Amino acid sequence: MAANYSIGQFSKKTSTTIRTLRYYDEIGILKPAFITESGRRYYSDNDLIKLQKIVSLKYLGYSLEKITEFIHMNDWNLKESLSFQRKEMLQKKLHIEKVIRALDHALHIMDDDGEVDSSIFISLILNIQMESEHKKWLKGFIEEKKVDAMYDIPEEKQLELNKKAITIYSDLKNLYGHDPESNQVQEVIKGYMEIVQEIIGDDFKLVQELYDMGNESESQIDTHNLFHSPFTPEEEEWVTKAMDIYLRKKGVIVDGK
Amino acid sequence: MAANYSIGQFSKKTSTTIRTLRYYDEIGILKPAFITESGRRYYSDNDLIKLQKIVSLKYLGYSLEKITEFIHMNDWNLKESLSFQRKEMLQKKLHIEKVIRALDHALHIMDDDGEVDSSIFISLILNIQMESEHKKWLKGFIEEKKVDAMYDIPEEKQLELNKKAITIYSDLKNLYGHDPESNQVQEVIKGYMEIVQEIIGDDFKLVQELYDMGNESESQIDTHNLFHSPFTPEEEEWVTKAMDIYLRKKGVIVDGK
DNA sequence: CATAAAACCTAACGTAACGAGAGATGCAAG
DNA sequence: CTTGCATCTCTCGTTACGTTAGGTTTTATG
């Protein structure tokens, strides 16, 4: 029970700040072996081991509250707890990986032209963020296999396609107001449809299905909360018109207004 | 500039809590388009876009403070900032991966026997945590190539070796007090040395070097802060004695005390 | 032994991004 | 006119300490 170390010495020995040691004393997770009448703290070798335990568990991501529980209960189910913690950490890892992917996409589209329209940037990020929700939603309408195929594209290709799409969004925004039937506009739309086809393949029926889904009045509310558009409502109406014309010419749309 | 949405409506539309919206108003990152005399907040479509921008940037890991800066400066270098953020996130990812590895090791050694000695557990975690520091330290003494080779072991094998080592630590702790020269003790030490050899190869010179390094008085301080031992000082003295006897018999140590 | 310097003490505020509650007010419908 | 819902403004709580500020105790030195 030798209380050998003053707080300063203990602090150096353990690479823990004095403040931290006092805090641990305060919350009762590590009380020094001995306190003098004047209030000075002295720590023992036993405290050293206790602190190491705390540090280890902290490293594994536990909160001080949990650790306090662990230390005071002596029959804690370590294995189960570790296994739970592992799952939590895997979750966190997945999240970070998604964020990194979003950053990669954002950086990639800025490679040459440092400037991107703000709303395009936003929709890029928001859509990457919602990707898994998109998949789920689509699977409610389309065969699971087809949906998986749509998303099973090598990362590099995705970066490229996304970049092309962004350029087209930008072009469309610049062309807003022009006649939707003009060659200029129709050319850009054609470029867009080429990208769509690279993603979903040459399956024209699928193109049509997707198109219908986006326009069904009941799903409108869903789609607009789920898929973020880079366009303003006015722009979007105009783009839809241009797309309509394009698809009609291609014979994908036959009926209806 | 139509201020169309009450805070409740805006909250639902954006899946943001009312509290958050009020907070954003308070810190000035998103002030509603219009506030009535009685203090009610009304948001516009423009605010919608602003909020989406905030949400996007938050998703990328930026703090509200940074975001506020971004929004108020209109010439922020987005690209550089994103690139910096990416690095930060990669760091975080690396950290989490290390934690997961530590959890894996901890779980693996508990696969059969749910119980592990507390100090062994601690040293396992602390040593995994310090792994990169260990490598650096070793490279100050041993050829870089050799050090890299020591650590370049498939994860599965590492789990196995670690588990074996833990069992041996446990055995040694149980045998503490017995004659270090006894067959029983020497057998366990032999098992330990087999593990060591699996890691560093059949290079007896290297074994000797490592052994010397651990015992050189000047490096003692370093080693004890860097490598965490699962043994108490008394236990460790005893283990060292047993190891000494073993290595002397094997002819690895010749001279000295 | 006196004094200065070093080490230590408590107390209290600050952090980030809200969540949760208390208690007061506004506003539209019956 | 009252009921009831929406909204308002405080204010405290959260995590794990960092950071002063201002006072006391120990230790080193002349």
UniProtKB/TrEMBL annotation, chains A, B:
DNA-binding found in the keyword field: yes
InterPro entries documented for this protein: DNA-bd_dom_put_sf (IPR009061), MerR-type_HTH_dom (IPR000551), MerR_fam (IPR047057)
PROSITE patterns from the UniProt entry: HTH_MERR_2 (PS50937)
Signal peptide, first to last residue: none
The HTH merR-type domain, residue ranges: 4-73
Protein name: MerR family transcriptional regulator
Entry keyword Cell membrane: no
